[in-house]
Model the fold of this input.
Amino acid sequence: MASNERVETVIVGGGQAGLAIGYELKKAGRRFVIVDAHARIGDAWRTRWDSLRAFTPAIISGLHGMPVPGPRWAFPTKDDLANYFEAYAARFELPVRTGVTVTRVSRADQRFVVESSGGRIEADNVVIASGHEHTPNIPSFAQDLDPSILQMHSKDYRRPSQLRPGPTLVVGAGSSGAEIALEIARTHPTFLSGRYRRAPVGPSRHPLMTLALLPILFFVLTIDTPIGRKIGPKLVRGSAPVERVRKTWLLSAGVEMVSRTAGVRSGMPVLEDGRALDVRNVIWCTGYRTDLAWIDLPIIAADGEPQQRRGIVASVPGLYFVGRFFQYRFISSLLGGVAFDAAYIARQILARASTPQPSPAADAVREGA
Done:
């Protein structure tokens, strides 16, 4: 990557969000590059736990222009999706550069400067499509657990054989925690810690339910509707309800559902009811936290989230986001939803390209320099 390279748009992230915006810009004939830290397209899915499947059926999991292969109502495996994204990029000849880690995004002379492990690129636009969150959110008291207890975040969990023999505590009763607990209960005595909440409806229940849900997911649960504005902040702050795993399945598998993990005593995890658990493994299914410190621009709010609406950063023209949770719809960060936000952001980029931009010299004249 040449240090003086210049393109119209740099897309940071080559997962579903990055590929979705890339498809729209390629269709419009724009000049752009997609940079991704993974070694191979699709690795964000390929490196997740072995038994993971999508929470939406193939019929609504694809990006624009190419459906996910296989039965329409089947739930693709994580490897199915990884291979689909790799094939998608190849089919539409998207310029994805893998193995490139972006270290800083800033502005200089009215242009964005993207610094990375592969060099420096100047651009008129930058789209942050690196996903909602990537940094594991593990409580500080985890460091006080006895060293003999194997700890890992769900990001690093692959299969039960990674675990040491003996009881296992899964912390976090969201979808990831419920699915992992159900799996490891076959080989380990398992505790699931946290508040379990099952979604009242969901696309994994029945094909007809999926069809019935589509208008709600696409047009009702948005930032422009009263109900969307009401529940959106609650979902952003908390964990989403469990969509697929039933509580009866967990109990039948022998999973003991316990209260929230609140601390450590004598090297053992302690629940909020005061009970200490003698376990050999702890899997933290506690989600991720936002870490955008590499964006060297004044756009980060006090809560660490970018100041954007529908992916547009009004204070920094030309900077966009795709793939943020509830960016516009409840499913904005999910398969089937991200492509629609990408199309919207692509239209903003095309509109900006057709509008003459002020030059640094013109700005200086206006300022009286």
